[in-house]
Amino acid sequence: MTQILAAAVFLLAAFLLIFVHIWSDTAVEYDIRQNLVREVRKNLKYVRVENGKPLFLEGYDNETEEIYFLLLDRKGAVVAGKYPEKYEEDDKIIFNYTRMVKCSGEIFFVRDMQRTKTLGTEYFMRGIVRKADIYSRYQTLEYLSYLSIAVVLAFIVLCGIFLARQISDSLKKMCDTAETIGKDFHISRRMEYDHRFYELAVLAQAENRMLDRMESVLKEQEQFTSDVAHELRTPAAVILAQCEYVSEQGKDSGDTEEAFEVIYRQSQRMHMLISQLLRLARLDQRQMKLQREEVDLADLAEAVCDDEEERAGGCVTIVKKLGGAKTAGDINLLVIAIANLVGNAVKFSPKGGVIEVETGKSDGKVYVLVRDFGCGMSGEEIKCVFQRFYKGDKSRNSEGIGLGLSLALKIAQRHDGTITAASRQGKGSTFTLQLPPMESDENGKTV
What we know:
The protein is α+β, with helices and mostly antiparallel strands. Helices cover 52% and strands 20% of the residues. The protein has three domains: 2-139, Beta-Lactamase; 198-284, Signal transduction histidine kinase, dimerisation/phosphotransfer (DHp) domain (Helix Hairpins, Orthogonal Bundle); 293-435, 2-Layer Sandwich (Heat Shock Protein 90).
């Protein structure tokens, strides 16, 4: 960083020196031309022509410290005054134009002017100034400019070095913190910064937000591992106990059939858990390719409601309000999502309760709405309801494993949709699956 700063300062210094040099030359030449015109015009006022001969009034100067004045006739012959040293006499006449003449290595500025009101056309005045005589006055100013540039650049360099060290120290501390986190895996540590530089403060805040997310993901992973172990341990322990019981009692025991039924149910529970975990993993990693086709959500919802109502054995009544709701998606996955929503409503509905299932189109989306009138949820529970293995207090003793809503949300997201939840304790809950509608091309065919 210091090398880049030094290179930048060097380039800036070169640019400024070139600029000052060009600017000073241009400024000097401009000032010479303006002053020469002004002095020649002023001196012309003190010359008259009487009886065909020039008359010089008081105040006329043939020569000043810097400017030589010559009165010439129309042929360019000198009538009064003299040329400066090293200037070669010439009879070239260009009125009202300041020309630059180079003689013997010296540069001169020449101005020819005529005042016909007092001199007529027989005479004119020539002013000559040597550039070196004028330029010497500006050298001090030019040197001061160079010195000012050097002082300013030195100040910039010192400030740059100071700031570079401050930034480097801050970055080094941040790097040390990052290395400590990576080496010792102290994921709870955060980047500390004193906010002296806004950009570094933004970087530190971004790093801390990333660490927050990493810590949250790690905690979720640890919780996920613990939950999976817990969910698998229970059916595995039951299966093992039943197998030991059958082994001790013998195959001819009357409890053998009942034991095998318990083993079968727990095996089904494990199979369901593993299947849902596999689906979630594939959806997370986008390994599951969606078989997109036209889907009528009303038909899917009706079929799911019939299955759930039959499975509930008349314990709940499902009221269907099915409107047109077509989308493009994977039928098998969408059936799973809707079934999880309806099954969740059945699970939390009281015996003899009512569940409302509605489909339709609203705000440019097609939707499936599932509403129950069960125990409901608190605000804190709603925030966690889509987390994997989460179970509300009312469902700790239920047969669910806490993956249904997570899987339904992931399916919705893979279809560019979402699921929203609303609930009040004691009033029931409402879950709404929203998906993009089916699009059609110019010929009316589905896309």
